[in-house]
Amino acid sequence: MSIQSTRTVQTLRATRTVQTTSAQHPVNSPFSAASTAEEVMAGVDLSGRTAVVTGGYSGLGLETARALVAAGARVIVPARRPESAREALAGLDSAACEVVPMDLTDLGSVRAAAAHIRESVDRLDLFMAVAGVMSTAERRVGPGWEYQLTANHFGHFALACELYPLLRAAHGARVVVYSSAGHGITDIRWHDPHFRTGYDRWHAYGQAKTANVLFAVHLDALGRGDGIRAFALHPGSIITGLQRELTHREQVDLGWVDEQGTVIGEGFKSASQGAATGLWAATSPLLADRGGIYLEDCEVARVTDEDGPMAAGRVRGYAVGPASAARLWELSVAATGAGPIG
């Protein structure tokens, strides 16, 4: 490649990065960190709409499923533990909420669930990727993949690709991917994404959460011509089943709970408050012409490239870069064998 060509490519990449980061500006949302799912969904009518909510039977996913059903939507909940899911969702109208067996770390299971969903509905208005794991012990799945990257990213990536025709058929679908402020721990470890040279549970979590954001960035770029917009978000700090692999002692030492298990972490939210940003992303008219952006506290977050702890309402620049998003997409296609979309 010539020097001139190299400079042209660099200029184009820089321009795309500026375009993405310039979109990361607040939109004067009427909601805040204190807003609840009920407040965000007040007056929202989703009659005739269909949603897929991964993890829709516990924690934030359960709050999300309940809110969507209450607004009139049909909700499909892929679940690794289908019987537990049915018990948790028992209070909802069975005609409005269906459980489909699926394990995000098993691509065969993901494809089977997607095939069932494609046979059940002719369009998909909302894809809510809520399920996730955090700071787990080292675990290998599939062909030796790192567990957190697989459960949090590869599984959702494969499912979204399989369901893309249904999203396109909706003519205005939204994809909402739950990430975390934990993405600030690390960028994608391009040299060793599966930690074959040494495992760190928190870095593995941070990488997976960065992957969630980059996934939304590139899915939005590919899907906007089909009316599909994608968003990533930090729901806030909430004690749910997500922390199940952390001991009580670890949570005390982190300042999240006291010795009796009472939540004492500064700024921690209720489950309803934690679900609010995802529901806002799924329904807000303020986001109708936007996408590929990162949200927090029912608002668009600003970009930061400063080192150190993540400030509230901020997203790392490396997590919203289009070039990195495209690179991760290619890596994910190669890993999962997902077909082309668009």
Can you walk through the features of this model?
Residues 1-19 have low confidence and may be disordered. The protein has a single domain (3-336), classed as 3-Layer(aba) Sandwich (Rossmann fold), CATH 3.40.50. It is globular and about 45 Å long. Helix 3 (59-70) crosses helix 9 (271-283), helix 5 packs parallel to helix 6 and helix 7 (201-223) packs across helix 10 (322-336). It is built from ten helices and twelve strands. By secondary structure, the chain is an alpha/beta fold. The strands form three sheets. An eight-stranded mixed β-sheet has the order 3-2-1-4-7-8-9-10, with helices on both faces. Strands 5-6 form a two-stranded antiparallel sheet. Helix content is 40%, strand content 14%.
Salient structural properties:
two-stranded antiparallel sheet, 342 residues, Rossmann fold, eight-stranded mixed beta sheet, 12 strands, alpha/beta
Arithmetic mean of pLDDT: 90
Helix count, DSSP H or I runs of 4 or more residues: 10
Kindly report how far apart the N and C termini lie.
30 Å
- CATH-assigned fold name: Rossmann fold
- Which architecture does the CATH hierarchy give at level 2? 3-Layer(aba) Sandwich
Order of helices and strands: HHEHEHEHEEEHEHEHHEEEEH
Query: CATH class, anyone?
Result: Alpha Beta
Helix-and-strand structural type: alpha/beta
Please summarize the sheet with the most strands: 8 strands, mixed
Radius of gyration (CA) equals 19 Å
Quote the beta fraction: 5-15%
Within CATH, the superfamily carries the name: NAD(P)-binding Rossmann-like Domain
What is the number of domains? 1
Cross-sheet strand order for the largest sheet = 3-2-1-4-7-8-9-10
- Helix content range of the residues, please? 40-55%
Give a count of the beta strands, DSSP E runs of length 2 or more.
12
Assembly classification: single chain
Give unreliable regions as ranges: 1-19
